[in-house]
């Protein structure tokens, strides 16, 4: 199952369309989810029942609009909708607990009708137990390539596996990029750690892979390499307590500035 969070924004609708195409490609169901205050999610009566009804009607309109767009984008996809009670970040993370992927827009609506810029995207990307795709309104048809951020650090196996599987599924090339340290002397990083890709290469021999080590800051290197790509895949790097993983600085910057969809894959144990 794939879960897509929608709020009526252009970015949210782009995420819904992207998720529908992905669900159709994978042959898995898609759940379009809209979060709203728990007290308004069901008709429980009380002094605010008219306000609650108005909010539910608005949520249903958002879901209906997203459903219409997903059917146009991916007619064969099996799509359902749901209103989720609670804060969008928590509600989406919980709804996506059994999912293989969670998709959200890079920013939602402002003011009273939504959250502040990027708060949902950043919140779920740092906490979800499954890969999170952060989608932008597509500017132009992308080039048929997936870009993978590689640094050889422990726990990056899931991100590598995701990128190879996605490239195989889409039948596109994979560009594995390592930001090499341009500083001379001990402690510098240089060539791309090819050993990290060996297992995935064996499992996906048909995926055309290009490995590239580029001198520079990881954020600048990855942003430059991923411009116009179908997808940029990176592992999460931070450590959290209680609520789960937090985003590392590189992943955080990529979500803010990348021009293509970004998938953040939770780190694991290789």
TrEMBL record:
InterPro entries: Rossmann-like_a/b/a_fold (IPR014729), Universal_stress_UspA (IPR006015), UspA (IPR006016). Transmembrane segments: none annotated. SUPFAM superfamilies: Adenine nucleotide alpha hydrolases-like. Pfam families: Usp (PF00582). Residues 2-136, 146-266 form the UspA domain. Gene3D superfamilies: HUPs (3.40.50.620). Belongs to the universal stress protein A family. This is Universal stress protein. It comes from Sphaerisporangium rufum.
């Amino acid at each position: 199952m794939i879960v897509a969070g929608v709020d009526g924004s252009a970015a949210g609708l782009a995420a819904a369309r992207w998720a529908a195409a992905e669900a159709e490609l994978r042959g898995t169901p898609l759940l379009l989810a809209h979060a709203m205050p728990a007290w308004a999610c069901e008709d429980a009566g009380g002094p605010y029942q008219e306000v609650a009804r108005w909010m539910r009607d608005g949520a249903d309109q958002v879901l209906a609009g997203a459903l219409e767009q997903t059917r146009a984008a991916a007619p064969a996809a099996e799509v359902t909708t749901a209103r989720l009670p609670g804060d969008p970040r928590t509600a989406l993370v919980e709804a996506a607990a059994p999912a293989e992927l969670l998709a959200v827009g890079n920013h939602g609506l402002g003011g009273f009708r939504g959250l502040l810029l990027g708060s949902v995207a950043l919140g779920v990307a740092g906490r979800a137990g499954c890969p999170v795709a952060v989608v932008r309104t597509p500017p132009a048809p992308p080039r048929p390539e997936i870009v993978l951020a590689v640094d050889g650090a422990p726990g990056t196996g899931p991100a590598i596996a995701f990128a190879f599987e996605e490239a195989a599924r889409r039948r596109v090339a994979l560009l594995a990029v390592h930001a090499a340290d341009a500083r001379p002397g001990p402690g510098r990083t240089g060539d791309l750690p090819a050993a990290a890709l060996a297992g995935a290469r064996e499992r996906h021999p048909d995926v055309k892979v290009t490995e590239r080590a580029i001198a520079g800051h990881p954020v600048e290197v990855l942003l430059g390499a991923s411009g116009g790509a179908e997808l940029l895949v990176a592992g999460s790097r931070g450590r959290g307590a209680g609520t789960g993983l937090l985003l590392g600085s590189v992943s955080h910057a990529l979500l803010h500035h990348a021009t293509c969809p970004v998938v953040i894959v939770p780190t694991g144990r290789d």
